[in-house]
Amino acid sequence: MRRLLLCRHAKSSWSDVTLADIDRPLNKRGRRDAPLMGARLAMLGVKPDAIVSSPARRTRKTARYLAGALGFPRKMVLVIDEMYEASPAILLSIIRGFDNQVEQVVMIAHNSEITVLANQLGGLGIDNVPTCGVVALDFAVRSWRDIMKRQGIQAFFEYPRKVRNK
């Protein structure tokens, strides 16, 4: 069994128009929501074997918040350059390359790719994964390379507004 948690980065700031897209930080809401979602994932029993992130500043910071809440060593978060501006097909290729000793992975990337990939892998109809939203999909496969579209079973779909309203 493999569990893939697809996470859209927390809300980012557009206040400094001189920054390149890859350098945009989290805004106040993002800095509030990322720890909230980390705590929610911990409450749901998430224990990742790996956390992978796009190299964008906002995804790396989201990853650090989630890692801290999940007791995952922040220095072990793997930044994969190819995840920045990656198509869903490239993200799927990265997923299929995960080490098979790893059973549970949190992947933090960007929209619309996260929404499209969640829908493709789980056969879902999610309109939009909100910022810092997480879609957890379970796959009854022995190897990451065997993951196919429409094969994932949704374990949960959590996002900050839903968590705050509980």
3D architecture notes:
The chain is of the alpha/beta class and 166 residues long. It has one domain: Phosphoglycerate mutase-like (Rossmann fold), CATH 3.40.50. It has a six-stranded mixed β-sheet, with helices on both faces. α1 packs parallel to α2. The protein is globular, with a radius of gyration of 15 Å.
Classification by helices and strands: alpha/beta
What is the terminal separation in angstroms? 29 Å
Helix count, DSSP H or I runs of 4 or more residues: 5
The succession of helices and strands, N to C, reads: EHEHEHEHEEH
Task: State the shape.
Answer: globular
Q: Provide the number of structural domains.
A: 1
What fraction strand? 15-25%
Low-confidence stretches: none
Features:
166 residues, alpha/beta, Rossmann fold, 6-stranded mixed beta sheet
List the helices and strands and how they pair.
Elements: E1 2-8, H1 28-43, E2 50-53, H2 57-70, E3 78-79, H3 88-96, E4 104-109, H4 113-122, E5 134-139, E6 153-158, H5 160-164
Parallel strand pairs: 1-4, 2-3, 2-4
Antiparallel strand pairs: 1-5, 5-6
Helix pairs in contact: 1-2, 3-4
